[in-house]
Give the backbone structure.
Amino acid sequence: MGKTIAEKILSAKSGQDARANEIVVADLDFVMGQDGTSPLAIQAFEEMQGDGPFDPRRVAMVIDHSAPSPLEGVSRLHAKMRDFARRYGIILYDIGEGVCHQLLPEKGHVGPGSLVIGADSHTCTYGAINAFATGVGSTDLAAGIISGKMWFKVPETIKFVINGRLPKGVYSKDLILYLIGDVTADGATYMAAEYTGEAIKTLSVEARFTISNMAIEMGAKVGLMEADEKTMEWVRKHTDRTFEPVEADPDAAYAAVKEYDVSELEPQVAKPHTVDNVVPVSQVAGTPVQQGVIGTCTNGRLEDLRVAASILEGRKIHPNFRLIVAPASRQVMLDAIREGVLQTLIEAGAAVVTPGCGPCVGTHNGIPSDGESVISTANRNFKGRMGNNKAFIYLGSPATVAASAITGIITDPREFLK
């Protein structure tokens, strides 16, 4: 019997014939923590009496969730991370560098066939470039920093075959919201999601990151894709390291195979307060919204900002609406400046903030008021997610957010596409 992508990567990294539901101990290629989880990992590292990381070149800490620091207590935690990084020579991405899940692929730390853990649930993002990447807790992160190893239960895999092509005005965010609405928030718990089919192949690598990023929102441990030529070209652009792509065997065993044709798919919106509460935009069009967010590890890449700018060009944001734009990294911000994308967004009335996670997780940079509704490109809309449990969060694509910013109500972006 053949193997899935997940089984193959965990077999290679553990030296075992790994099959679904077995336990393996595997060698890690990269380990990451962010400022919401790294301080606890440092504490656990000290309690474990670690004498150093297994390889400083393969450990990174990223200050992105509260960057720049909004509070004195947060500043102390950031100082703790900086001190730890200096002491042990690990990689530190400080304020302004960007979101961890943009930086690890962008800086060439991960690639096809990699095994990666990160103390953040959206570490599954890197599955878009064929890496088995998954989130862990701070204690597991500390153990991984010390040993370079981690135990895994090999996940069963659900295969998603996405046929057809996304229509104009419908994006990868709409696709993954649609899949989550169908599978539900716990429909793939502790499984690997494998995404394939014509619709996936036609997407850019940036768009694929959006899909893998939200695998966790259906409960999945990883969101994997095969490495095609687009993938390899993207990886070569970001690093000169050599990676070995991994593909599923034709006779691999899957827990389920789900097929879709997305040729007629509409823009999708997730309604408060769960990510799987998904409807076509037509069902919520006209809902008043007071704030929008374009950014995060889900949709803060250059392609996303371009889409928003194409809709907002020559237009103004509604006077009763606030639009916050958070580029995913410093590099994305620089590229968007060079192309004039940020100028277009700012001229329309957007507020551009430091690359980071603040608006998404509700630490700073845009906490909504009581009773306000937000339309966001983020990956979660739980009550209190953006820092106020009396607010309401809708999720949509950058195009949907941009269109809604013009009208002040949730709007089908196809009305504004040239």
Notes: The longest strand covers residues 157-163. Residues 208 and 408 are 29 Å apart (CA to CA). The first helix runs from residue 5 to 14. The chain has 15 helices and 18 strands.
